[in-house]
Amino acid sequence: MDLIKIGAYIAEKRRAQGLTQVELARQLGMSDKSVSKWERGICFPDISVLIPLTEILNISLYDLLKGEKMNKKDVEETL
Hints:
By secondary structure, the protein is mainly α. It has helices at residues 3-16, 21-28, 32-39, 50-57, 61-66, 72-78.
């Protein structure tokens, strides 16, 4: 996993939803510092927030783990 790429994708999708880091963090019950660390590629979100994060950002779990929009064929090849 490329943490830098994933972090940039989280930031891109967060902005597309019109959310600040603080707003996203509040929705997830986390600190904005955690969101900042994800977006800078310092660490990956805890497993407990992966599904809520994908729901808020309107992306699939596959997209999140890859750090980019995946098409159906790519997902099927991953499985």
